[in-house]
Every structure is written in structure tokens, then in C-alpha cells.
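Hi there,

I know you've been waiting on this one. I reran it after we fixed the sequence typo, so this is the corrected version. Both the input and the resulting structure follow.
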Amino acid sequence: MRILIAAGGTGGHLYPALAIASYLKEHHLVSRILWVAGKKDLERELIPLQGFEFKQIKTQTFPRALSIKWVSFGVSLVVSFFQSFLILWQFKPSIVIGMGSFHSYPVVTLAFLFGIRSLICEQNVYPSLTNRFLSWYASKIATSWAQTNEYLSRRVKNRIQLIGNPIRSEILKAKREEGIKKLDLDKNKFTLLFLGGSQGAHSLNKSGAEAIKLLDKEKIATEIQVIFITGRNDVKWARDFLKSLEIKSLTFPYLEEIRYAYAASDLVICRSGAGAIAEITALGLPSILIPYPYAAEGHQYKNAKILQEKGAACIIIEKNLTKERLKKLLLDLIGNKPLLEKMSRQSKKLGRPQAARKMAELVCEMGKKLC
């Protein structure tokens, strides 16, 4: 069975695709995997590094308003369809998997026209514009949240399967003691994990660092420690800002072995992208979520709202994010162990740690129908 995966743009699309591809490869379920993406640094560096065949197509995001961008978008779309046609004709995949980024559109559409079975995967509560278009053509639609059904046509409901957002298997493997030892942290201290995301998040980094400085003046300062993953742009100033404080802090631009940071952590402060939410719920971690306000169609807020409604997380809206507000919420949560334990249980209930395996099973089931 030959699988073509179309995914790129951001870590939110790439990492779930990588989890699926890695599972299929490690369990020898497919004969060959080809990855189609764009030309961003993240996808150009990450995909070949993981040992997958890689083809690039010319892509451009769908313009959300009337502008000159429509001209270049039209040209890019035509070119991407031609490139995708050649890739499909040469590779002859058994199944095409689209992860919801704009790279999926020409590939999955042409797969439908060629009679090739396709699977589209939606990581967020609110489906991407690309997936809303492709839902009409795809053979199967894999969702991460039951609430996603509300945003898709009734006519496609019989093709929807609730599976979850696949995460890398190594995320689940580390124990707290292992994470503490690996990062040289104190096992008796409460550990905060700030995640800026694959692209970094300056406002979160800034407010987070300033809130830690305020906590440094409290009695609780001797009882907490901080892991800060800032992204490349903010790492230097964040490290300089935090190093003079009594609270111990570790600051990284990116952490390849993120499993150790998760394992060591008691509370996560992050954006509410689908990838981060899939990981923290799979691990049953409580969180403070700060949705990215400019995410397409407010999908990060919709993700965060599900966790808040279920009692797994607290939300701070970006416009309300201040160092004082964040510090107060951190103090309230750190000092309320029963509430944190309840949030952790609720988070665990929402997690789908076996999503990669279930996605692979769905792919194999689709493959059997070709025989």
C-alpha cells in the first residue's frame, strides 16, 4: 500500500501527520510513504530529517478579503494543481491523506477525480476552510472532537469518524521522575511549563516572564520552578530576564525532547492550538490557555472553550492578558491542589492518546477495500 500525505504550513498540521506516518512506517503497514508540502523552513527541514520522501508544491493561503492577493493566489492554485497531477500520476498512491492545510486541497481534489480513496483529518473543533471544501470529496473524514460535526453538512455525516488528533508516541513515554532528572529540576517543587508554540508567542512569553517576576516576590517563590519554551525570537531576552530571579527557570527556544518537560510539569500555560491541546489532554495535564486571537475563524478559542467547559482548563483572552491577571490565576491554582487534581482528571478524559494507532487502523481498513 502506497500512502501520500499532504501536510505543511505549521506544526499543527505537520506533527499529527508525522505521528501517523511514523506509526505506519514503524509497524510496517505500508510499502511507501510520500509527503507533499510547501517551501517553509519547518516542513523542508523536518520531513526529510524524519526519513520520508518529500515533494514540494507551490501553495498560498486562501485570501480572506478582496485584494490583489487573489491574482497571485489564482496563479499559485493553477500551478499547485499541475504539480499535484504530476505527483499523483508518477507515485500512484493507494490512499491520499490530507491534514487540513492548504496543501491538501489540490491533492485531495485530484485524488477524487482520479478515483483514489482519500482521508482528511481535522485537528480543531472548528474545521479549516480547506477541510470544509474537501469534506464533499473525501472518502473518510477523521475528526478530533465530537463538536466538529456541528460545522459539517449532514450529507457527509456517514463518512465521519471521531478518532482524535494523533500525537508522537514518545510524548507518552516519560515519567515524572525521569523528566525531573533529565532537566535537573527539584522533585519537591511545583513546575510550571510555558509553551510559546512552534512559531513562538511574544505576548505570552512577555506576560509569562513578568508574571514569574511578580511571583518571585511572593513566599511561594521557593516552592516553584519554571520551564520556558519561547521560540527562537524571544529566547535571549527571556533567559536574561529570568536569570536574576530566585525562582529557578530553564529557558529554551525549542525542546526536541518535549516529553521530559511535560513529564516534569504540574501546570501548562500555552496557546490553544490543536497540537498542544492533544498533547496536554493525552497526558492529563491541567492548563491555562491563551488563545491566539488572529487564528483563522477563531478556532483556537473554540478549542480552549471545550476544555474550559469540561473543567480541564482556564482561559485568559489575549486582550485581558496582563502580568497581574496571570500571576493571580497562577497563585490561585498553585494553592488549590483539589482543583488542580480535578482539572487533571477532566483533561485526561478529553485525551485520545491512541489516536495515531486508530488513524493507522482506519488507513489500513480503507486499504483493504481496494483489494
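Quick highlight: Residues 136 and 155 are 8 Å apart (CA to CA).

Best,
R. S.
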